[in-house]
Specification:
mainly alpha; about 80% helix; about 210 residues; globular
């Protein structure tokens, strides 16, 4: 636990190599103690995946998220919140670095089990919507992406506030979708607000992944 927690702190500080080393040590120790699948092993795999994603190593993030998800499925089943979140996380990473069709399937499966009115589900619901919009755009399905991204923008503003970086990410993707439809005048204010939110985050504290 101590090694994993220290690794997470290193990741939050942007020290990805140090974080990865500590998390892999924690994983190796867990694998000598516990029979797999085990929740601690699954948690360590997920922590490594998040570190790899934050460092921009997309394929490694996908691989470790798959391993973590497989353990959660075996331990907890498809309906447990941890499994639902990991399903969405894998879809999120695939939308950016992998197969957008597989990403869409996973994200829709995760969304179907989440309730946007439930406070414990809202952050994941927003992340899923944003990633689903990206996956649909990558497939050239802009008309399908637009209403999902519009919902994500509205949720982001309500959940995180106008100037938050997470809201800015949603504004940016929605603006790009409008540009893809040549709706330039509509896209401009969303893109301007996105830049403002994201630049504000750069000037402030480093983003915590």
């Amino acid at each position: 636990e101590s090694l994993r927690n220290l690794g997470i702190i290193m990741r939050m500080q942007g020290k990805f190599a140090e974080a990865d080393s500590l998390l892999r040590q924690a994983l190796a120790i867990n694998r000598t103690i516990f029979t797999e699948p085990h929740e601690r092993t699954a948690t360590n795999l997920s922590a490594i995946a998040l570190t790899q994603y934050a460092a921009g190593n997309g394929q490694a993030a996908i691989d470790y998220t798959r391993q973590s998800l497989a353990q959660y499925r075996a331990l907890l089943g498809e309906e447990h919140l941890n499994t639902i979140i990991l399903t969405g996380s894998l879809g999120f990473t695939l939308a950016e670095y992998g197969d957008p069709k597989e990403a869409e399937t996973l994200l829709r499966a995760s969304q179907a089990r989440l309730d946007s009115a439930n406070g414990a589900h809202r952050n994941q619901f927003y992340a899923n919507d944003l990633a689903l919009g990206k996956a649909l755009l990558a497939q050239g399905r802009t008309d399908d992406a637009l209403p999902i991204l519009e919902r994500a923008v509205a949720m982001g503003k309500k959940q995180f506030g106008e100037g938050n970086s997470r809201t800015g990410e949603g504004l940016l993707v929605y603006g790009k979708a409008l540009v893809a439809k040549e709706r330039y005048a509509e896209a401009e204010p969303f893109l301007r607000d996105a830049v403002t939110a994201l630049e504000k985050n750069k000037r402030g504290q480093p983003r915590l992944h």
